[in-house]
Amino acid sequence: MKNYAAEFFGTFWLVFGGCGSAIFAAGIPELGIGYAGVALAFGLTVLTMAYAVGHISGGHFNPAVSFGLFAGGRFDGKQLIPYIISQVLGAIAAAGVLYLISSGNSDFAIDNTKAGAFASNGYGAFSPHGYSMLSAFLIEFVLTAFFLIVILGATDKFANGKFAGIAIGLALTLIHLISIPITNTSVNPARSTSQAIFVGGEPLTQLWLFWVAPIAGAIVGGLIYKLLLQKDESQA
């Protein structure tokens, strides 16, 4: 059970730190952290939890990562459902705490007619800068595929595993620097689900894309690494 607990708390930290930075600190005039700060916050959550609990559960914190590691031959398929449940519950718990904290401000209200409400993801009118559904699908697919390539490469037995958490955290930072304007960045179905549940409305109906595109991209990334990039013993 410790691996499931590690996934719960790791995903909690990712949503609490990443989405929390977007909700509380991104939009403050002059002193706010902006897109770059939010991108860094997401990267730091994964980096810190990779070293804190990665040795317990593998440090997925993301259903798409679990699927990608399975496709890449690094994860037992029997663990997929329990891992995903742990991740989604951790994300929802974090969103719930963020909601309670936000409610302490008398001006707090979630306007689910606006893009990015409560750090939600979206496309079309709910994209931060009006990008289409196709654009959203492509960016989430491509970035998650490359995220899996980075994860599989950085954690390969031929790589220097001591630096894997840094590489993975910086990759997630880069992913957010690219795609926050397009979808508010998901590449993580658990993170998207937690925010959409509290926002409701159109962001909730668009949630399907933020499951399908990241998982499809992760599977492709996992297969690319396994079939095209991974060295075997004869190449060592």
Automatic annotation (TrEMBL):
Site residues by UniProt (Involved in tetramerization or stability of the tetramer): C19
CDD domains: MIP (cd00333)
Location of the protein in the cell: Cell membrane
Reaction equations catalysed: H2O(in) = H2O(out)
InterPro entries noted in UniProt: Aquaporin-like, Aquaporin_transptr, Aquaporin_Z, MIP, MIP_CS
PROSITE patterns: MIP, PROKAR_LIPOPROTEIN
HAMAP family: Aquaporin_Z
Free-text function comment from the UniProt entry: Channel that permits osmotically driven movement of water in both directions. It is involved in the osmoregulation and in the maintenance of cell turgor during volume expansion in rapidly growing cells. It mediates rapid entry or exit of water in response to abrupt changes in osmolarity.
Domain writeup: Aquaporins contain two tandem repeats each containing three membrane-spanning domains and a pore-forming loop with the signature motif Asn-Pro-Ala (NPA).
Protein's recorded name: Aquaporin Z
Species of origin: Empedobacter falsenii
